[in-house]
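Task: sequence in, structure out. Protein: Transcriptional regulator.
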Amino acid sequence: MNSLSTPKSDPGLDALAPLYKACGDPLRLEILRVLRRDTFGVLELSQLFDVRQSGMSHHLKVLHKAGLLEPQREGNAIFYRRPLNLNAENTSLTGDAVRQIFRTIDQVPVASHLQEKIEAIRNQRADQSQAFFARHAEQFREQQELIAAFDLYAEPTAELIRARAARHQWRTALEIGPGEGAFLPVIADICQHVVAVDNSADMLRKARQTCTDQKLENVELVLGTTATLLGGQQRFDLVVANMVLHHVPSPADIFLEASELMNSGGYLVISDLRSHDQDWARENCGDLWLGFQPEELNVWASDAGLETGEAMFIGLRNGFQVQVREYLKPEIDHRSQ
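Result:
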């Protein structure tokens, strides 16, 4: 045997080497940090860090190859996010290492100047969505039904909520993005007090007319977002978001803010599109995102301290699929406090 031969390395360590090498650049660590809950495209990340697109593409390629990022196709555009498969069951050496890297990075707060740039990008997305609804408020139902007729997802969502309400004494409810208010009669029939928040004055005007027509006297309409409500005292037993996530700048924040607005033991019910590749929905329906993978929603819910409940998937003839998801905020046992 040749005593000078190179010893064989451990396959596990071979897999870790590119992972830690990819983390050897401070800019890449910054990229991973801002992608904790957000999803950004190459151009957006270039704007955030004042880096040329070619340089940013190189950094993203290195992080992707190391398993620290994964691309997400949104029609003709590519966005980047953290991997979705880092659940507790993934006990591989690299999986443990990636989770530890993220935990360490997330302890460092985002610099204020960088947070301002992130908010600017979110505001650009929000302006884009608001401009669409301002232009198409009178044709809202027709535009939305290009993708999914209201009854196709509203009825299963209503059935799920009614089944849960039969076992609980819900008093307060919040609907995020009520649109024309078509779902408000369902919630108002279950809860004593309902708040509906929407960032479109045109949509709230239509929702107000629905409340008048349906004689819904227990509904309060608020112009704003879930963030608008955080400073108030109201908390809710039930939170509903029907076909809203694909219109908001940062869907993950909806889970965080909804969780904060929920009472202990409360329910969050979401219906939204599953991931698709029909890019025309951006221009014709004002969509910012082309649906979501179920794992994506579950990760955001878990980060917000919510437990995953039942899920229903509704296939549509035009190739779209709607998912109805249920999330629970665990009850606090005051006896243990």
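The two ends are 66 Å apart (CA to CA).
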